[in-house]
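Practice problem. Given the sequence and the SMILES for S-adenosylmethionine, write out the predicted structure.
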Amino acid sequence: MDKEQLQTLYLQEDYYWGKDPNELAKKILKYVAPPKKVVDLGAGEGRDSVFLAQQGFDVLAMDIAPAGLDKVVRLAEEFDTQLHTLEANINDVSFSDSFDVVYSIGALQYIELQNRSRQFEHFKAITHPGGIHVLFAFMNHPEVDIAPDWGQNEYLYQPQELENHYAGWNILEQEQIIFDCNSSNIPHQHAADILIVQKLLKGN
Ligand SMILES: C[S@@+](CC[C@H](N)C(=O)[O-])C[C@H]1O[C@@H](n2cnc3c(N)ncnc32)[C@H](O)[C@@H]1O
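Answer key:
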């Protein structure tokens, strides 16, 4: 979806992605204890950012859609917690801060191919030694068709593409999944690569 479509979606009262956190966000607690700094790239309406803030993490929720970020703030208020927000494009965002956790689910496909190496290098550089990246990327799979509501600004990852950005990091978990989806009320499937990696204490 492009920014205008997302804005329209997020201006509705309902939470399109729901208010319950993804299981992947909960996995962060297995590896990193609060209070540490988390950036959520493509935070949407904030279900995961707010959950992580509730756990005691210092969270920056970043998204391109300001109407989504308004809902992130409202959801944080509803759950009596606090976090920071940033309106930015994942294609060129540059953080001056560093983080213990870089988290992203469902937004990495918006990084255009020519920007990927640069942005992943940046996200790695702003990660503290011992910090982790917890990532979910939609990927190309021979048995899965392109989703009917897939946007022209979205680019699937190739097999191994995600892990290739993390040479020299510890792979903590990796899984490739195919799952059913009913977004836009059209039943379809997605393939995704889930990767949890840790920056070495010394080195890169
Ligand atoms: C599939 S939604 C996932 C939202 C959230 N991570 C969740 O799981 O609830 C993808 C998000 O990426 C955001 N997005 C799309 N293009 C973006 C871009 N170029 N830069 C930053 N965020 C973007 C959208 O606004 C949307 O909130």
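Check your answer against the key. The mean pLDDT is 96.
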